[in-house]
């Protein structure tokens, strides 16, 4: 992989051609990818509509929370596309990657293990790729550190960080009045003698009963899951008459995703929470980036909360075509690419990539100009480097690992 000579010449202006000719090329050395699992069936209580009169929910082909066959096939297609990128960059050669080429580690949830296997089917078709994870029933501190970590948790400090970041739960609710009114229409509680007023439902954020986490109540917490189900129904390829009981549209599904994204402003994005939710995984990734013996491609298969927390720790916000800003979609990945130049200096490029809703809904094979959306993310701490480097999102490796280790608690 090289920097475009023509682009560099434009950046440097007069005399730029000579500078560009002397510019060293960049070679991809390794890639770390943190994925959200693929399309799953809704969780048991996710819809939050049991107290309402409504038509039956659509039938799903798998049990609650499990990866669907369509979700697996979408991940396989993403993996096949990713394999081509690795081969074109010179990172991989040969049909079956070995342990020095590829490692996959997933959370212990069945949907993440299945997602890792589906992605591997595309990355290495016909090859035996180990899918690493802890034993069934164990909690993995890389993905769920607050559930088992002995690290101190200061509830007052967590609440203060959330208040400063969000402006408080009342302000959060006010920002999402339009979305709450729209979802009231979808679930059918905006009609009748006593139409619902979701924005008027009291909201509260407090320390969880176990003292190890935060608990949010109110309309955003209650109906964020409903918004997520609408997205899952659409991605699963259900007829529009079944998506939100026929009372929504593709554009509305995207808009309502903002309710789901708002959860992460409480649980994952504030400095206090991000440092703890992403801490152990960030430390593992930092060690992987520095380790010359690490696999060329290291994949972690987790959840939207993991992606939201790690991106917040790095000072960037994920966004993907067709989804609400800040809402990591199924099959989306936060990527960290390590490159070295001809002088041996090592750089990092951060990016986010995801198949858009239409590509997943219709299981579009990726070829030619059809590809997952790929967006380079510029780290705020690297904005002072030279313009030619900044334009491509490159940042010194030492700065990225320093940022992770300085901010992580784990």
TrEMBL record:
Pfam families: His_Phos_2 (PF00328). The keyword Methyltransferase does not apply. CDD domains: HP_HAP_like (cd07061). SUPFAM superfamilies: Phosphoglycerate mutase-like (SSF53254). Residues 1-22 form the signal peptide. PROSITE patterns: HIS_ACID_PHOSPHAT_1. Keywords: Hydrolase, Signal. InterPro entries: Acid_Pase_AS (IPR033379), His_Pase_clade-2 (IPR000560), His_PPase_superfam (IPR029033), Histidine_acid_phosphatase (IPR050645). Belongs to the histidine acid phosphatase family. This is Histidine-type phosphatase. It comes from Sphingomonas echinoides. The lineage of its organism: Bacteria, Pseudomonadati, Pseudomonadota, Alphaproteobacteria, Sphingomonadales.
């Amino acid at each position: 992989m090289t920097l475009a000579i023509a682009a560099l010449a434009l950046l440097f202006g007069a005399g730029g051609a000579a500078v560009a000719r002397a510019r060293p090329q960049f070679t991809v050395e390794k890639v770390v990818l943190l994925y959200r699992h693929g399309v799953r069936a809704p969780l048991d209580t996710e819809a939050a509509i049991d107290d309402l009169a409504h038509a039956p929910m659509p039938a799903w082909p798998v049990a609650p929370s499990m990866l669907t066959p369509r979700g697996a096939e979408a991940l396989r297609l993403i993996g096949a596309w990713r394999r081509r990128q690795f081969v074109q960059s010179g990172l991989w050669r040969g049909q079956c990657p070995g342990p020095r080429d590829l490692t996959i580690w997933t959370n212990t949830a069945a949907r993440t293990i299945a997602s890792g296997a589906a992605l591997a089917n595309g990355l290495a078709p016909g090859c035996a790729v180990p899918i690493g994870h802890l034993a069934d029933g164990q909690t993995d501190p890389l993905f769920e550190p607050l559930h088992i970590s002995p690290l101190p948790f200061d509830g007052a400090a967590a609440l203060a960080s959330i208040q400063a970041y969000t402006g408080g739960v009342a302000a959060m609710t006010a920002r999402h009045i339009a979305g709450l009114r729209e979802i009231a229409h979808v679930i059918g509680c905006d009609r009748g003698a006593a139409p619902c007023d979701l924005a008027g439902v009291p909201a509260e954020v407090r320390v969880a009963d176990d003292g190890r986490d935060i608990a949010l109540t109110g309309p955003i917490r209650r109906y964020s899951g409903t918004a997520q189900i609408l997205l899952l129904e659409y991605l699963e390829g259900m007829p529009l008459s079944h998506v939100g009981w026929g009372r929504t549209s593709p554009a509305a599904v995207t808009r309502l995703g903002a309710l789901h994204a708002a959860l992460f402003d409480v649980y994952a994005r504030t400095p206090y929470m991000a440092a703890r939710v992403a801490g152990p995984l960030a430390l593992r990734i930092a060690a992987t980036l520095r380790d010359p013996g690490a696999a060329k491609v290291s994949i972690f298969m987790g959840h939207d909360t993991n992606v939201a927390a790690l991106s917040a720790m790095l000072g960037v916000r994920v966004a993907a075509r067709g989804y609400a800003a800040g809402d990591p979609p199924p099959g989306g990945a936060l990527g960290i690419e390590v490159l070295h130049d001809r002088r041996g200096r090592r750089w990092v490029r951060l990016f986010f990539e995801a198949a858009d809703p239409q590509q997943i809904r219709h299981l579009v094979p990726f070829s030619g100009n059809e590809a997952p959306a790929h967006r380079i993310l510029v780290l705020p701490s690297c904005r002072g480097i030279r313009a030619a480097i900044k334009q491509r999102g490159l940042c010194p490796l030492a700065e990225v690992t320093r940022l992770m280790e300085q901010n992580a608690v784990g």
